[in-house]
Specification:
Largest sheet: none
Distance between the termini: 43 Å
Number of helices: 12
Shape: globular
Number of domains: 1
Radius of gyration: 17 Å
CATH class: Mainly Alpha
Low-confidence stretches: 1-14, 227-232
Order of helices and strands: HHHHHHHHHHHH
Helix content: 55-70%
Amino acid sequence: MPDPDPALPDDDPATDPGHGLLPEGADLAGWLRARWPLAGADDLREELLGAWDRPGHHDLRHLAEVLARIEELSAAGLGFAREPVVLAAWFHDAVYDGERDAEERSAAWAERSLPSYVGEAAAAEVARLVRMTETHDPATEDLDGRVLSDADLAVLAARPDRYAAYVAGVREEYAHLDDETFRRGRAQVLTSFAERPTLFRTDHARERWETAARANVASELATLGGVGSAAG
C-alpha cells in the first residue's frame, strides 16, 4: 500500500533536504537540542553535538537534515520506531574522519554510551541501524532501517546549490587524497548507487526524491569522467 501523500507547500517541491523543514539561518545547535530524544542525557547530547560540529559534509547541517527528513517520513504516516531511528541518526556519522571504519566506531560509541539510558537491547538496535548506514541496504522488512537510509541519502536529491555544497564537503573530508584517487573512489560510490534498482526504500522517498537524486548522481558522474573512466 503506498505511503500517504500529504499536501506540500507550493514553494517546496520536496527535492531539497531541509528546504521548508529547517528555518533559514537557523541556530542548528539549538534546533538539534530541541530534537534530542533522551531526558537526563544532556551530557551525551553535547558530546555528540561537539563531534558533529566540524568541517565537511558530515556536519551539524547534515545531522539536522537527516532528522528533518525523519520527521517528514513520520508525518507521512510511516509507523517506524521513532526513538531508535532518531538516536541512530545522531550516532550514524558521529565519528567521521574519512577512514573506512567510521560507521563501526560510531556504532561502538552508541553501544558504550546508551545502555544506561535505554537498556542493552535498545542500544544494540541503535548500533545495528548505525552499521546499516555503511551500505544503505536495509532489508525489506526493516522499516526502521529503510527510514534511516532514506533520510541519510535524501541529500542526493538536493537542489543544485545544496548538492554542490554536499560534493564540496565530501571532497574536503578526503583532502588527504590526491584528485585522481578521490575521483576514482567517488565515481565508484556513485556508480554503485546508479546501478541500484532504487535509491530509496520507502514509497514517500521514491515518489519525491528518486528522480532528482538520479539526475544529480548522473550529472556528478559525468563530471568525474563517467563510469568507464572510473573503472579503469
